[in-house]
């Protein structure tokens, strides 16, 4: 090995140490799994670390979380936007921190109809039916929600 290559290796090693000391280079890169992507009205499962005592959702209008047995967290998209999720131990230490991004459905079977400033959304798989979607006109949204609620009530009473 030549003297020049030894000097280059030593210089490169010193350069890496200097960058680490200055905080310019991190040993733990940002991982893609630190962002939880969910569509509105859908759920995603996340495995919790051990010893979690408290779950915090920054904005519960955007996402909701429910703890299940076995250290599983169910995160449900409630509204469009971005919020955060934190899991704390009994001493208040952060064991997990994630960003939760809730987006629109983004599927090819959704059709949005604009009537002037009024908006209606339909799910067309295979036939077009009314869909409860945030941002629809109040009259359309409330009528669809009322029908859906009545249907769910009938299904629950029939199951009893």
Which spans have pLDDT < 50 for at least 5 consecutive residues?
Answer: 11-32
Q: Tell me, what's the shape?
A: elongated
Fraction in beta strands = 35-45%
Main beta sheet, described? 4 strands, mixed
Question: How many distinct beta strands?
Answer: 10
Radius of gyration: 25 Å
| Class by SSE composition | alpha+beta
The CATH class of the largest domain = Mainly Beta
Mean model confidence by pLDDT? 81
Structural domain count: 3
What is the count of helical runs?
Answer: 2
Examine the secondary-structure arrangement and name the CATH architecture of the largest domain.
Answer: Sandwich
Rounded to the nearest angstrom, the distance between the terminal CA atoms is 83 Å
Secondary-structure element order, as H and E? HEEEEEEEEEEH
CATH fold-level topology of the largest domain: Immunoglobulin-like
Read across the widest sheet, the strand sequence of neighbours is: 1-7-6-3
Q: Residue share in helices? A: 25-40%
Key features of this structure:
160 residues; alpha+beta; Immunoglobulin-like; 4-stranded mixed sheet; 3-stranded antiparallel sheet; 10 strands; elongated
